């Protein structure tokens, strides 16, 4: 690990921290946003859903652009766009301006994580990649902590406009930092012609996409929008207690990250079982919460938070699949496919919960819409795991499910 690579990585992680702060800021301000913009459950869900839709739709084009333009340019543009979005949100007083603001936040956010993952993949050796990716997600999640209790406190103390103008200023700080510190080398020929189709044809890329979708969707919907209202309105918790639980989710996730990164690197043939275990545990604890008569006890809600905390780190395994099955010249495109799939699933859960809330007015029924998404994700993980294994068997590498992490032949071959 060179000093230069470490400095670049730290800078990229700080930019990701700010992006997560912007991304999560709606979730803890959801009740205030509903009152300010005069929104019901579906309207509130539309704000978050559109932010995620823009994020998800932009993943593949952004992945191609980061392979062409480099991480620095994309990080600078992303930070500026998110700051503009928060300025618009600070002065928004109707649904139209609110939608425009969250679209800008989603667009800038879409440019950030892929750019940082590209820095990791090109700066660190393959064996260290799983842990470095987990550390990237872990440190970046401090942005989620900064968007829970501090934003709730700022909204109550200073009001809507000053809070979101301060958020925009934080984005400008990130812009200056990235512009001053990062340096991108001149793109090589392979970077100027990334293989989007080849990345998609790799079964490992789609295994990564469904890994991200199956593991991320529940915690993302909880953190981005529905967790705070669910805990306050559905479970009767005080706002401060709900904020502490949301912060706890992030803190526990930061503990899970390095552990899962180590396990993924140490036992690469068992990565898909980690994914399926996380998905199954999430469905199980939600079942216990939803079937509990009346309001769930605090200990059970804490158990829910702890299990949800494994979702984000678990979804990072999807990016390791993308790295394993693709050469450096199309890492951005493959990462975009993986990330886009996860956020499309998260957007779907957010939208379905909003519709169910408007139809039933009951959080228990609304949260049950997650089950079909988990089931589809688990089935697809099993399906593409089998395809990836068949590909490796055909290549006669004899390395099992994902053992070709350092094999150039595997990276260069498309799936059948």
Topology diagram in text:
Blueprint: H1 3-28, H2 30-37, H3 41-69, H4 71-91, H5 95-110, H6 112-123, H7 129-140, H8 142-146, H9 149-158, H10 160-181, H11 189-192, H12 196-201, H13 203-234, H14 239-266, H15 271-291, H16 298-308, H17 311-315, H18 317-324, H19 331-360, H20 363-367, H21 370-394, H22 408-412
Helix pairs in contact: 1-4, 1-5, 1-6, 1-7, 1-10, 1-13, 3-4, 3-5, 3-19, 4-5, 4-6, 4-10, 6-7, 6-19, 7-14, 9-10, 13-14, 13-15, 13-18, 13-19, 13-21, 14-16, 15-16, 15-21, 18-19
Q: What do these coordinates show?
A:
- This protein has 416 residues and is an all-alpha fold.
- It has 22 helices and no strands.
- Helix 4 packs antiparallel against helix 6.
- The longest helix has 32 residues.
- The two termini are 36 Å apart.
Protein traits:
416 residues, mainly alpha, transmembrane, transmembrane helix, disordered C terminus, globular, single chain
Mean pLDDT: 84
Structural class determined from secondary elements:
mainly alpha
How large is the count of helical segments?
22
Give the tally of β-strands: 0
What's the main sheet like? none
Q: Which outline best applies? A: globular
What level of helicity do the residues show?
Answer: over 70%
Beta-strand residue percentage: under 5%
Rg computed from alpha carbons, rounded to a whole number of angstroms? 20 Å
Low-confidence segments, given as residue ranges, are 187-193, 396-416
Instruction: Give the H and E element order.
Output: HHHHHHHHHHHHHHHHHHHHHH
Query: In angstroms, what separates the terminal alpha carbons?
Result: 36 Å
Membrane topology: Multi-pass membrane protein
Subcellular location: Cell membrane
Main location: membrane
Pfam family, one: MFS_1
């Amino acid at each position: 690990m060179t000093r230069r690579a470490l400095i670049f990585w730290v800078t990229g992680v700080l930019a990701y921290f700010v992006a997560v702060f912007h991304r999560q800021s709606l979730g803890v301000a959801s009740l205030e946003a509903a009152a300010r913009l005069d929104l019901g459950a579906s309207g509130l869900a539309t704000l978050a859903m559109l932010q995620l839709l823009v994020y998800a739709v932009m993943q593949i084009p952004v992945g191609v652009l980061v392979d062409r333009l480099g991480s620095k340019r994309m990080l600078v543009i992303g930070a500026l766009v998110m700051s503009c979005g928060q300025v618009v949100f600070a002065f928004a007083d109707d649904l139209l301006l609110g939608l425009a603001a969250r679209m800008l936040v989603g667009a800038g956010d879409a440019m950030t994580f892929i750019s940082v993952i590209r820095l990791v993949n090109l700066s660190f050796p393959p064996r260290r990649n799983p842990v470095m990716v987990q550390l990237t997600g872990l440190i970046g999640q401090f942005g989620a902590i900064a968007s829970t209790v501090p934003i709730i406190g700022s909204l109550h103390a200073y009001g809507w406009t000053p809070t979101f103008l301060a958020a925009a200023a934080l984005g400008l700080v990130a812009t200056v930092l990235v512009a001053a510190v990062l340096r991108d080398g001149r793109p090589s020929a392979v970077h100027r012609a990334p293989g989007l189709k080849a990345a998609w044809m790799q079964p490992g890329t789609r295994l990564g996409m469904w890994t991200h979708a199956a593991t991320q969707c529940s915690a993302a919907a909880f953190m981005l929008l529905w967790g705070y209202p669910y805990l306050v309105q559905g479970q009767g918790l005080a706002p401060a207690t709900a904020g502490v639980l949301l912060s706890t989710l992030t803190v526990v996730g930061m503990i899970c990250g390095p552990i899962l990164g180590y396990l993924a690197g140490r036992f690469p043939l068992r990565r898909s079982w980690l994914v399926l275990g996380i998905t199954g545990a999430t469905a199980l604890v939600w079942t216990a919460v939803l079937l509990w008569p009346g309001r769930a006890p605090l200990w059970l809600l804490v158990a829910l938070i702890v299990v949800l905390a494994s979702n984000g780190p678990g979804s990072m395994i999807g990016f390791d699949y993308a790295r394993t099955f693709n050469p450096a010249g199309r890492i951005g495109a493959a990462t975009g496919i993986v990330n886009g799939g996860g956020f499309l699933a998260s957007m779907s859960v957010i939208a379905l919960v909003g519709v169910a809330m408007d139809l039933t007015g009951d959080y228990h029924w609304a949260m049950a819409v997650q089950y079909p998404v988990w089931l589809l994700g688990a089935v697809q993980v099993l399906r593409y795991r089998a395809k990836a294994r068949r590909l490796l068997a055909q290549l006669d590498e004899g390395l099992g499910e994902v053992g070709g992490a350092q094999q150039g032949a595997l990276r260069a071959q498309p799936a059948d």
